[in-house]
Amino acid sequence: MKKVRLVLGSGGARGMAHIGVIEELEKSGFEIVEVVGCSMGAVVGGIYCAGYLPEYKHWLIKLSRLDVFRLLDFTLSAQGFVKGERVFKAMEEFIGDHAIENFKIPFTAVATDITHEKEIHYRTGSLFRALRASIAIPTILTPVRWDKATLVDGGVLNPLPINLIHKEHGDYVVAVNLNANLPSSLTNAVEENQERAAYLKMLDAIKTYLPRFDNSGDTTAESLGLFDLLNKSYDMTQDRLTEIMIAIHKPDLVVNISRNACGVFEFYRANEIIEVGRQAFHTAYKATPL
Q1: C-alpha distances out from residue 122 to 23, 70, 227, 274, Å
Q2: For a disulfide at 173, which of 128, 156, 168, 251, Cβ 3.0-4.6 Å?
Q3: Can you tell me the distance from the alpha carbon of 224 to that of 95, in angstroms, rounded to the nearest whole number?
Q4: Which residue, 113, 91, 111, is CA-closest to 41?
């Protein structure tokens, strides 16, 4: 059986595509012997290594748009508008917390310590503590403070951490990039979807209540653009860092998921996005068979 060392990148709800990739790898006869994940890639990868991916997938598939909003514990903070505690508590109820060092498949979650300006690699300790730190998207999820450090999304420094893989002779490295600059086959259909239109309207309403990022007291429409500007800049930085990682470390297979596949909180579209992962794997594998 061919052995795969799997790298799962960051990208919000697009990370559900990782589930489709993992399932198709196993169906194709590959044995996953190591997983390194960042942000949502860490969540899917960590839960897979803990042995609970089927339960997690089942939970995601049942989520409605209303369920997603009920899981988002909003807070008025200049560092993010979602605390993230509620969703992890919900997952812990059916998964339970686990010590990473006890996993049969070695797992690494990547976070960023902005206090000391360095990456943090979780290979031991509480799974959910590691995942919460890894997924703290700047300006969206509030940072995690732990042991005199302020921890945020690992994608700030390393959105596709191929360099952390411990490759051995004969192994294949498969990297799943959630930030590919590709057209999405779902875009046109989704734009006509009334449910998503309502979702976007609710997000816009939430953004109007966010704290201002300056002290001018300006409430004009132009002043609200900074939120989108920060996130667009973050996306562009992730894109470039991902390109550099792929160019330097040259994984055996890169599975590309379009950045436009879905919005960061569109977890109610699990079936669609998991299928996107399946299709993307087969497209990549057909072009570059291992």
Answers
A1: 24, 29, 30, 26
A2: 251
A3: 39
A4: 111
Cβ contact 141:234 at 8 Å:
no
Copy the structure tokens of residue 289. 């068979």
The 10 Å CB-count burial string (b at 16+, else e) for 25-43 is beeeebebbbbbbbbbbbb
Return the H-helix or E-strand segment holding 118: strand 118-122
Tens-level pLDDT at each residue, the chain (290 residues) = 899 999 999 999 999 999 999 999 999 999 999 999 999 999 999 999 999 999 999 999 999 988 998 898 877 766 777 888 899 999 999 999 999 999 999 999 999 999 999 999 999 999 999 999 999 988 788 899 988 899 999 999 999 999 999 988 999 999 999 999 887 665 444 444 554 555 555 555 555 544 443 334 444 444 445 556 777 777 788 889 999 999 999 999 999 999 889 988 899 999 999 999 999 999 999 999 99
Active site residue 153: yes
Distances (CA, A) of 277 to 86, 89, 233, 274, 280: 27, 26, 25, 5, 5
Q: Which of 10, 39, 134, 258 is catalytic?
A: 39
Active site residue 126: no
Q: Which residues pair with 108 in a beta bridge?
A: 36
Query: What letter represents residue 48's amino acid?
Result: Y
